[in-house]
Design brief:
Layout lengths: L2 H4 L11 H5 L18 H16 L6 H7 L7
Length: about 80
């Protein structure tokens, strides 16, 4: 009985894609032609290790520095 409360009558479970629903996208949206950037676990860990090294070596910008570099953004 609770199942019909979770699924409106115009959307059947086989038409609802949870990631699409989470981002407010419609199920009838055409599929992406190019998959999003995907890394293997090893590639991801290497990128994270490099990011940590960059931060430790001072290769980063503060929020205020970025705002000064891009004043057109007018971030609040």
């Amino acid at each position: 009985m609770a199942n019909h409360l979770n699924n409106p009558p115009h959307e059947t479970p086989e038409k609802v894609n949870e990631p699409q629903a989470a981002y407010g996208l419609k199920a009838d949206r055409p599929p992406m032609t190019t998959p999003p950037c995907q890394y293997t676990l090893e590639e991801l860990n290497a990128r994270l290790d490099q990011a940590e090294k960059d931060v430790n070596n001072g290769r980063h910008y503060s929020t205020e520095e970025v705002r000064k570099m891009y004043p057109k953004w007018k971030l609040k």
